[in-house]
Amino acid sequence: MNKLYKNDPAFYRKVFAITLPIALQSLITIGVNMLDTIMVGSLGDDALSATSLANSFITVYHIFCMGLGMGASVLVSRYWGMKKAAEECGDVSGGEKAVHALKQTVALMLRITLGLAACFAMATLLAPGFIMKMYTEESAILDLGVTYLTFSVITYFFLGSSLVCTIVLRSVGQVRLPLYVSIGAFFVNLSANYILIFGKLGAPALGVAGAALGTLAARAFEALVICGYFLVTDKRIGFRVRDLAMNTRRIIAEYFRVSIPVLISDGILAIGSNTVAMVIGHLGGAFASANAITAVTQQLSSVVITGASQAGAIVTGQTLGEGDRAKTMEQGYMFFGLGLFLGAISAAFIMLSSDLIISTYKNVSDEAVNIAHDLMLAISIIIIFQGTNSIMTKGVLRGGGDTRMLMLTDNIFLWVLAIPLGLLGGFVLKMSPFWIYIFLKSDQIVKTVWAYLRLRSGKWIKKISTGRN
């Protein structure tokens, strides 16, 4: 217990200096999603289910981008730590090597992100009906979902580029700008939704299509400001548009070794999460609507956990880049303790706020409301485990470079345990929504135990090179 909770004000100040701006940005993003859900929910169950299920596909791309960004962040944080250590020692050559490797990492990340955006946009443009049929057979929901996807084709490019650039900026300590941009995006989305969904200020009432266009407007705003700053103004990294074409041959092996397992892991997890969404979609419109309501609540309750996860990766990477292994181990235990604490706080928040949040959805069915209450109770239990292992697997262990092992364990627990149990509970045993959700999230419990054992072993700390002689 002493290892988990130490009197180290400097550590907690550093962690929360990174965590809180990220958490506030996540809170604003969730606020945008919640506004979308409430506004679209006023159009009825079908519209709410359609947008929720359509966004499940867009979320696959979002998770891929998170994987690319967080994978690159492992390297960027380490190289940034190397740069600082070299500067303190007066090692000019070492600092230059670290900065060059950092830029190469960013170039590779952006190339892959934009390539994936093109693939997802093409699939959405050519086969929106096929995509929606993966989630539902109900024709009314399917048609509305196709409409939403059709107006979301360009969104991928804006979403991906702004997301990965934001993660890189955070890795070198620039956490405020993304927060300010998210505040602006919130008001862009709110205004566009109000005008386009309901037909205000002389605009036509577009309904679901208006919700898609409102989100597109917000994503475009984020991308123009974030990427404009990163590629033109930022001086910490100094990455410019011309650097996209830089020779990355020497770093590519190291990039693939560290970053690609994160991409694969998060990609397969995205498919797994998508499979969970398919299971929920096929349990009926009321279940899908209830899940849409509770999904926003779960995100809302875990914004600080999300920030702490990214802080875990950044702090761990920088500490290792400075060459202090013992300090890294000590911080790892403290992050585990922080995860338990934040998970418990999130569980309490869900229990206290669930009635209020569910009551804001006026036009959903009584069945959806009842299911939502069951799901809220299940989420409040799972979030304790999910919060703890998220900070460890997406933060500390990933920051240590243990990406290959995480790729294996994350997906083994999901595909061998959680999804089979969810299918069993939902379609064979016909269990209550509470137990279906617990079964679908059972991997979170097991991963928490595994993460602690992995932390103790010390095997998660890996060496990373700049790829240059």
Verbal overview:
- This protein has 469 residues and is mainly α.
- The protein has one domain.
- The chain is 82% helix and 0% strand.
- The chain contains 16 helices and no strands.
- It has helices spanning 9-41, 45-89, 92-126, 128-133, 139-150, 155-171, 176-198, 208-233, 249-281, 285-301, 303-321, 325-359, 366-399, 403-428, 433-440, 442-457.
- Helix 7 (176-198) packs antiparallel against helix 8 (208-233).
- The longest helix has 45 residues, at 45-89.
- 56% of the residues are buried.
Brief sketch in words of this structure:
It contains 16 helices and no strands. With 469 residues, it is mainly α. It has one domain (9-457).
Count every helix, treating DSSP H or I runs of 4 or more residues as helices: 16
- Flag low-confidence runs: none
Distance between the termini: 43 Å
| Number of E strands | 0
Strand content: under 5%
Mean pLDDT: 85
What would you call the structural class? mainly alpha
Notable characteristics:
469 residues, 82% helix
Topology, please?
Blueprint: H1 9-41, H2 45-89, H3 92-126, H4 128-133, H5 139-150, H6 155-171, H7 176-198, H8 208-233, H9 249-281, H10 285-301, H11 303-321, H12 325-359, H13 366-399, H14 403-428, H15 433-440, H16 442-457
